[in-house]
Amino acid sequence: MSNITLKLVYKYGGVSLELELSGDKEVVEEFLDKILNRFQMTGYTIKESVEPQSDDMKMENHMLDEHLNIEILSSDSLPDIINKIFYSGWGRTPRSLREVMDILNRYGLFYSKSTVAVTLKRLVEKGSLRRIKGKDGVFKYVTSTPVMGDK
Q: Could you tell me the residue range of the domain that residue 33 belongs to?
């Protein structure tokens, strides 16, 4: 009996469905077949993509969940959401544009790379965030003032 962890992300229009299955390989495959058949019966097409998660990725996701405890309201703008994310404690460590995009996606928010980049640039200009050039030459973003509780 072998175990498997499978993450399925489905996006259609403004709807996003994220499903994570874990357990006995045969049971997961049987359940996944039922889901895929259901979508095919409704006429949707599905592009299959499997993202295996290493132990490092699982640990990173666990740490990410521990630090992020924010509430996103429907009235929040993208700059508001990014500020909430950075000032939740997640922004103590310099983060790249890719990391910001990933965290927004985890919350079901799908913005173009250019939209997020411009928003980060404006938050830097406003003084909410700082931009630091990393050792790898990639710009990283961090809170401009200490997060409450930091010493």
A: 3-42
